[in-house]
Design brief:
260 residues; Arc Repressor Mutant, subunit A; two-stranded antiparallel sheet; 40% helix; DNA binding; transcription regulation
Length: 260
């Protein structure tokens, strides 16, 4: 997934090649949180790579909490999240949370801290634009509301879809995006349209006060600096996986073992 802040955009692969350590590349500044949940006076910049891992930690911890876990060791959490313990501890240090030696982390406290730092203490209303196969699936996905992202508006240009409920929400026309998004307080727009329509959709979302856009269309969007864009290009992700597969194949020795 590629981040595009304002008018800037680029390949995730290119960014990794040009940046010696992706974990040192800061995103927008976020307040660090102490162990009792209070914001510190000073503000730290959390690297984008670390933000992505914090979201993974939250998912893992939420599952542990549902299973009745009250504490978790750093090694256990690191293994469940697919990272090493040192990286986990470094990531959690951005929250000001270091756990207790011999005990680990309190699951409920850490969940609360992560939700706070990720901005999940309030709901973010979502609009999906383009009710094709992908948009239809997103509109019906039941996991969004439970994680604080209720889908509140749907848009398309197909006259056969206008007014038809999808996931319980009637589909509105693309021309109504600014008005509907403003009225319903939409903060996140998801673009699942064909590429030629994506820029027009983005413009209308911005007119409606949308501050964040998740873009599935394989185009670079031009948006104001205050609008955050995340680009999801499945073809690029597959190409990255292909690169790793090819590299592994080149490193396999004659005995079938991978040479590292």
């Amino acid at each position: 997934m590629v981040s595009q802040r304002g008018r800037r955009n680029g390949s995730a692969v290119a960014r990794k090649l040009s940046t010696p350590d992706a974990d040192n590349a800061p995103t927008a500044e976020m307040p660090a949180v102490t162990e009792n949940g209070a914001e510190e006076a000073r503000v730290r910049a959390i690297p984008e790579a670390a933000v992505a891992r914090l979201a993974v930690y939250l998912r893992v911890l939420s599952a542990m909490s549902e299973q009745g876990a009250t504490t978790v060791a750093s090694e256990e959490l690191a293994t469940a999240a697919g990272v090493n313990s040192a990286k986990l501890r470094k990531d959690l240090s951005y929250l000001g949370s270091y756990g207790t030696r011999g005990v680990g982390y309190e699951v409920a406290v850490l969940v609360a801290q992560l939700e706070r730092i990720l901005g999940l203490t309030r709901q973010h209303k979502v609009a999906v634009v383009g009710i094709g196969n992908l948009g239809h699936a997103l509109a019906n996905y039941g996991g969004f509301p439970g994680r604080g992202f209720p889908v509140e508006a749907l848009f398309d240009i197909d006259p056969d879809l206008i007014g038809v409920p999808v996931g319980g929400i009637p589909v509105s026309h693309l021309n109504d995006i600014p008005e509907v998004c403003s009225e319903r307080g939409i903060s996140i727009g998801v673009i699942a349209t064909p590429p030629p329509a994506a820029q027009t959709v983005a413009d209308r979302l911005v007119q409606g006060g949308v501050q964040c856009i998740l873009n599935f269309a394989p185009v670079v969007l031009q948006v104001p600096d205050h609008v955050e864009v995340r680009k999801v290009d499945l073809a690029v992700e597959l190409q990255i996986l292909s690169f790793h597969v090819a590299r592994r194949a080149e490193n396999v020795g004659g005995n079938g073992m991978v040479v590292r």
